[in-house]
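Side project, low priority. Logging it here so it doesn't get lost.
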Amino acid sequence: MEEDYILEAKGLVKEFRGFVAVNGVDLKVRRGSIHALIGPNGAGKTTVFNLLTKFLPVTRGQILYQGRDITHYSPARVAQIGIVRSFQISSVFPHLTALENVRLGLQAKAGGSFAFWRSGALLHRFDEAALALLEQVGLREYAKVMAVELPYGRKRALEIATTLAADPELMLLDEPTQGMGTEDVEAITALLKRMAQGRTVLMVEHNLGVVAHLADRITVLQRGTVLAEGTYAEVSSNPEVIAAYLGVAHA
């Protein structure tokens, strides 16, 4: 049914001076699911993400969120209505503590993200909620540690906590396990599984082991178009998908 889909893209096209990076992409993300967007390097995954979150304007096509046309919304407006994105490169503030980073996310949700001059009492009213989020992602003991001092995997966990601080209905995760070793990948995968409960997640991910473990549905892109869509079992046995990934590292 139509109302089961929280996000829809219809015929998305993105052109850069005559080069078509995304060409007629249709996408439907079911509410409460984990939906993965995969494909070889240069397939257009991050461009689609940028279109959905309005960091790039759409050349043609339409984006619907909960049935509302958001095609021409600003990035800030998209975030306000419940779509929150984490970035491929960790976007936490390196010289703030883990607690302060999450507190900023909570302040942003409350409408005062950069009110650094406000009294300590007002800022510290977010501490309990921030500590609870750090507990959820396994970082409570690192609350007073500067983000720059955290190991890479824990820094990504902190980014997930700051994303959760915005209380999103739809989380968009861009390569959440990028650059991680096996142990960190396993930890972040388990964390994402827990955090996705009761939420909708759309993720770009290069590690198909992670996708196999997490995703309810997968859309495969190649050269800016949809190559295949289905469950992991369906897309991983698709001859066209196998051919597209042939020789691609970590695919």
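Brief comment: The chain has ten helices and ten strands.
Revisit when time allows.
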